[in-house]
Design brief:
The strands form two sheets. Strands 3-2-1-4-5-6-7 form a seven-stranded parallel sheet. Strands 10-9-8-11-12-13 form a six-stranded parallel sheet, with helices on both faces. The mean pLDDT is 96. Helix 9 links the parallel strand 11 and strand 12. Helix 9 packs across helix 12. 35% of the residues lie in helices and 18% in strands. It is α/β, with parallel strands linked by helices. The longest helix has 18 residues.
Length: 320
């Protein structure tokens, strides 16, 4: 089976392309947002093939996996085939509704021929899906192994573009948490963050690392801090749990489902979260035990095998 899918979310797609199919990933000369091609920072199997728009028009395609509204038109222009009509299609919704948590209508809400696959139950609940068929396939993480050492008494934070995204990702909360623990902020466009927040450089280190270096660097930190107010369930939170890191997180979106009792501290009370951060810094053994519970919980619910089985079932259903 040949599956057309755009390279949009590298971490999610890395798990998706482990399945037993051929994956056709569009590529353009500039490798822009609609033509990134194969990943350069993740390891993908040889079954992921780059095709230009001209090659896609001649390619056999059994399923289209769409992830952005404009891909409906893009797929028609580049392949000459209509998603959901000429070729079976699904739409993966990675995000929580942004404009309004309760009144935002999904771009596919008026269609019944393209199922919308949400990555969390929270997302399906909050979007107005209209008459679109919906499914939930939760994240699947390729296990990086129990890398946590906690040797550095610091809190790891993972966020891309923290200045631009601001309150959405809890960037405004970082100065307060920096009073309880020095922070290592990993992600793209984090350079200069300490200056923007008015923090000393040692209390807020920017760490824009290659993908292959990210997990070992995170795992050297004592704990993982997730100050995100409103996004879908962050893959970085789940990856930190797989690493064996204790987590401290805002009780928003799907976090409570992902972090069970004993795997970390989840609350919307900042004083509770600050106390948890200080507690893990002071007690490395407690951090280790909590991290082991976090890893066990994440492996049980968000394993790669379950993710692949769920997608295998849906793909067979949609293409039969």
């Amino acid at each position: 089976m040949n599956i057309l899918v755009w390279h949009v979310h590298g971490s999610w797609l890395t798990s998706f392309v482990q399945g037993p199919y051929t994956f056709l990933v569009p590529v353009t000369p500039d490798r822009g947002p609609d033509g990134l091609g194969r990943a350069r920072t993740w390891q993908w199997p040889a079954t992921v093939r780059e095709l230009s728009p001209a090659e896609l028009r001649e390619a056999d395609i059994d399923l289209m996996v769409l992830q952005r509204p404009h891909e409906l038109d893009l797929a028609l222009r580049w392949t000459g085939r209509r998603p959901g009509t000429d070729v079976p299609a699904v739409y993966v919704e990675h995000n929580s509704p942004h404009e309004s948590p309760v009144d935002t209508r999904h771009p596919l809400a008026d269609r019944s021929d393209v199922p919308v696959v949400h990555v969390t139950h929270f997302n399906r609940l909050m979007w107005d899906n209209g008459r679109a068929p919906t499914e939930v396939i939760e994240h699947g993480i390729i296990d990086p192994g129990p890398l946590w050492t906690g040797e550095e008494p610091r809190a790891a934070v993972v966020v891309n573009e923290p200045v631009r995204r601001g309150r959405t990702t809890g960037t405004d909360l970082l100065p307060r948490f920096a009073r309880s623990a020095p922070l290592d902020v990993f992600g793209m466009r984090t350079a200069g963050l300490a200056d923007r927040l008015g923090l000393p450089a040692d209390r807020c280190r920017s760490r824009d690392l290659p993908q292959g270096e990210l997990h070992p660097a995170m795992a050297r930190c004592r704990l993982y801090l997730h100050p995100v107010r409103w996004t879908s369930l962050g893959l970085s939170l789940l990856e930190a749990m797989f690493l064996g890191m204790p987590v401290v997180a805002l009780d928003t979106t799907e976090v409570r489902e992902a972090v069970p009792e004993g795997a970390g501290v989840v609350s919307n009370r900042l004083d509770v979260l600050e106390e948890a951060v200080r507690g893990f810094l002071a007690d490395r053994d407690r951090a280790r035990r909590t991290g082991e519970a976090a890893r066990a919980a994440a492996r049980s619910r968000y394993g790669e095998r379950r993710f692949r089985d769920d997608w295998e079932r849906l793909i067979k259903e949609v293409t039969r």
